């Protein structure tokens, strides 16, 4: 298939480009580079053996996007472009709603005007809020999102479902990611956060590389095995392959389909720290801090629907995630 990849220069987008090309798909990237580096696409080119056509276009730019859509006949779009920092979204709600919702509305409109009504959307387990059931199935009701970032994901899911209800030509796959970490095993592409990382694994790797003195563990009094928060970490290469599998749902004219992309296993913060230390032979100093506002105790998926319907299952475990995160950070201490 010929795929438009919005946000393709980002962390998950760049890994997905590698897997799409390996599976024989043709890809074209649109990204405004607001949270990524052009070099990521050069590294992807190196890994796949050819250039990836790239357009530095903002998805809110209707004219720019229309030019790209006119120049190509896309079978589907995989839509990663968006802002994703939870804390920043609380500080700048308007910017988050305008970029994520405004941008996606323009994208959907330009797509339908060009007769491309197939989209795979990056959603998040955050839409479950504090989940009503664990492990979380897709039948679990959506919950209350404590921040504007999460709200944009939940609202965009609803918008796309309404559009599909009104126009059955749309095929929409909503992928609810759990916690993507790791990097391509080559160490050539990986996560490249700006400033102080918000998420656990990039913080751990920056401690390991000597950029930060210690990790703060946000709370050790949760009702979990060791008191620290439990999450479903998934290797970004497995997640990327989940997008290739999601195209199968589009090919089958799925209408609207929702899939959790996780491993189904929950690990605590201290499990991650200990596994990282064991696999990489590096000590990660840490101290216990207050709980982080908005955090929940436990969140992990039931991933059986994706396995049954898409034939997709995560292959990598926590050890490989820790190995590959460190391999990327060690080889690229300052990112791209
Ligand atoms: P990322 O920031 O690395 O990638 C997003 C890309 O979108 C960046 O390259 C950025 O420059 C681009 N972008 C942002 N706004 C744009 C706009 N208006 N026009 C064009 N390009 C724009 O983030 P990521 O981790 O690769 O996440 C990809 C998607 O997956 C996002 O939508 C994110 O919300 C979602 N998601 C991520 C996680 C995670 O833990 N990383 C979890 C759940 C969902
Ligand atoms: C966060 C976001 C979520 C988003 C996801 C992926 C919040 C409340 N949620 O999920 O919306 O989809 O990232 O981008 O921010 N931790 C520490 N010390 C740290 C960092 C994290 O102890 O320095 C702990 C957290 O308390 C949590 C676990 O590590 O228990 C994972 O945290 P993180 O990587 O930020 O992911 P989530 O909070 O699950």
Estimate the helix proportion, in percent.
40-55%
What strand line-up does the widest sheet have?
A: 3-2-1-4-5-6-11
Strand count, sense and barrel status of the largest sheet are: 7 strands, parallel
Total helices: the number is 11
Q: What is the 3D shape?
A: globular
If you compute it from the alpha carbons, what radius of gyration comes out, rounded to the nearest whole angstrom? Answer: 19 Å
N-to-C order of helices and strands:
EHEHEHEHHEHEEHEEEHEEHEEHH
How would the blueprint of this fold be written?
Elements: E1 2-6, H1 11-22, E2 26-31, H2 39-48, E3 54-56, H3 62-71, E4 76-79, H4 86-91, H5 93-113, E5 118-124, H6 148-166, E6 171-177, E7 179-181, H7 200-208, E8 215-218, E9 230-231, E10 233-235, H8 236-251, E11 256-261, E12 267-268, H9 269-280, E13 286-289, E14 298-299, H10 304-310, H11 318-331
Parallel strand pairs: 1-2, 1-4, 2-3, 4-5, 5-6, 6-11, 7-10, 8-13, 9-14
Antiparallel strand pairs: 9-12
Bound molecules: nicotinamide-adenine-dinucleotide and uridine-diphosphate-N-acetylglucosamine.
Question: Can you describe this structure?
Answer:
The chain is of the alpha/beta class and 336 residues long. Helices cover 40% and strands 17% of the residues. The chain is built from 11 helices and 14 strands. The strands form 4 sheets. Strands 3-2-1-4-5-6-11 form a 7-stranded parallel beta sheet, with helices on both faces. Strands 12-9-14 form a 3-stranded mixed beta sheet. The chain has a two-stranded parallel ribbon with strand order 7-10. Helix 7 packs across helix 11. The longest helix has 21 residues. It is globular. The two termini are 29 Å apart. Bound molecules: nicotinamide-adenine-dinucleotide and uridine-diphosphate-N-acetylglucosamine (UD1).
């Amino acid at each position: 298939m010929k795929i438009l990849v919005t946000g393709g220069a980002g962390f998950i987008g760049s890994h997905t480009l590698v897997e799409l090309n390996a599976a024989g798909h043709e890809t074209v990237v649109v990204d405004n580079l607001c949270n990524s580096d052009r070099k990521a696409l050069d590294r992807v080119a190196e890994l796949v053996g050819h250039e990836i056509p790239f357009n530095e276009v903002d998805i809110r730019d209707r004219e720019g996007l229309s030019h790209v859509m006119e120049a190509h006949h896309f079978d589907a779009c995989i839509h990663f472009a968006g802002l994703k920092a939870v804390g920043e979204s609380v500080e700048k709600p308007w910017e988050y709603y305008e970029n994520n919702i405004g941008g996606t509305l323009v994208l959907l409109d330009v797509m339908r005007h060009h007769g491309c009504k197939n989209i795979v959307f990056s959603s998040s387990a955050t839409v479950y809020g504090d989940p009503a059931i664990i492990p979380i199935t897709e039948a679990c009701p959506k919950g209350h999102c404590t921040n504007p970032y999460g709200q944009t994901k939940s609202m965009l899911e609803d918008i796309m479902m309404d559009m599909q209800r009104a126009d059955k030509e749309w095929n929409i796959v909503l992928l609810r990611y759990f916690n993507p970490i790791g990097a391509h095993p080559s160490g050539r592409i990986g996560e490249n956060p700006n400033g102080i990382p918000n998420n656990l694994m990039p913080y751990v790797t920056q401690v390991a590389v000597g950029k930060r003195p210690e990790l703060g563990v946000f709370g050790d009094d949760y009702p979990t095995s060791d008191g620290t928060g439990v999450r479903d970490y998934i290797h970004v290469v497995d997640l990327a392959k989940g997008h290739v599998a999601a195209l199968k749902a589009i090919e089958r004219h799925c209408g609207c389909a929702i899939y959790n992309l996780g491993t189904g296993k929950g690990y605590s913060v201290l499990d991650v720290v200990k596994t990282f230390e064991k696999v990489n032979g590096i000590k990660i100093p840490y101290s216990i801090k207050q709980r982080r506002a908005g955090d929940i105790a436990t969140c992990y998926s039931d991933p059986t629907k994706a396995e049954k319907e898409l034939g997709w299952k995560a292959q990598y475990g926590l050890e490989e995630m820790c190995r590959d995160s460190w391999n990327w950070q060690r080889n690229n201490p300052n990112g791209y």
